[in-house]
Write a structure and sequence with these properties.
Layout lengths: L3 H20 L1 H5 L6 H14 L5 E5 L4 E3 L2 E3 L4 E5 H5 L30 E2 L6 E2 L3 H17 L1 E4 L23 E5 L1
Helix pairs in contact: 1-5, 3-5
Length: 179
């Protein structure tokens, strides 16, 4: 499972990267310069904007109180990944795709939780996050600089009840040509 889960996660994020390229061509035009930092901001915004899955589930290990809410041991709890990554208290214009928001972003690992929250070595954040970022960046560069393709009409809606959250039609591309 430790091999399969990261492969699935990366494939979902590569699909969502392709979706962002298709849905936000004005942002893609900013990537033509080929600057690595612009690509990094774009993939971070893909991870913030699109949910890998809408929530993460866990059982409470021991009783505690947080912000006036009591959590009892054994209670199934849900961490709202989508809601946190779109919280207007944390993110300005959270429903707009704006990669430049990561230019000087200094948020905490509890504010930006595309792959779980907290630190990966102490909390519930994916230890494979760094390799995911690198593969997403390589995939983004490939999709915008090394091939031409068309995205035919299809159902690109995302479900907030399916896990992982993928476009309904996945993301079909055709007429692929190497540049």
């Amino acid at each position: 499972m430790n091999l399969l889960r990261p492969i699935v996660a990366i494939s979902v994020y590569v699909c969502l990267t392709g979706l962002a390229i298709h849905q936000f061509p004005n942002e893609v035009a900013k990537l033509e310069s080929g600057k690595d930092k612009d690509h990094q901001w774009f993939i971070q915004e893909v991870r913030r904007f699109y949910p890998f899955f809408p929530f993460a589930a866990a059982r409470v290990k021991k009783d505690f109180t947080w912000n006036g809410f009591s959590f009892e041991e054994g209670t199934l709890t849900l961490l709202d990944l989508y809601g946190t990554n779109h919280d207007p208290k944390i993110w300005e214009n959270p429903y707009s795709f704006q990669p430049e928001r990561f230019h000087e972003w200094k948020g905490s690992p509890f504010d930006f939780i595309p792959q779980g929250g907290g630190e990966f070595d102490l909390g519930h954040r994916c230890a494979g996050e760094w390799i995911t970022l690198d593969i997403m960046k390589v995939s983004l560069k490939f999709l915008i600089h090394q091939i031409d393709y068309e995205v035919p009409k299809q159902d690109l809606s995302l479900s907030m009840v399916k896990m992982p959250s993928l476009p309904e039609s996945k993301l079909v591309i055709k007429n692929i040509k190497c540049v």
